[in-house]
Specification:
- This protein is about 40% helix and about 25% strand.
- It has about 70 residues and is α+β, with helices and mostly antiparallel strands.
- A 3-stranded antiparallel beta sheet has the order 1-2-3, with helices on one face.
- A hairpin with a 2-residue loop joins strand 2 and strand 3.
- About 5% of the residues are buried.
């Protein structure tokens, strides 16, 4: 079985938000930018929190797969 990643994956942050996930070969994922609009602070905060959770989940999965 071929490995999914080269080395250990890590999250790259930009402007204090997840920007992407990369390994030694380059980026594997990029995250969409979340727009912030007037009177939508709660939605923005919730979407940022979801993006952090998704980044952590993907990172954990990729690093577990790389151990196989």
């Amino acid at each position: 079985m071929e490995k999914i990643i080269d080395g250990k994956a890590k999250i790259i942050y930009k402007h204090n938000k997840p920007y992407g996930i990369r390994d030694n070969s380059g980026f594997l994922f990029f995250f969409c930018d979340i727009s912030k609009y007037t009177n939508q602070e709660e939605r923005y905060r919730e979407e940022i929190e979801q993006q952090f959770k998704l980044a952590d989940s993907l990172l954990n999965f990729l690093n577990e797969e790389s151990k196989l």
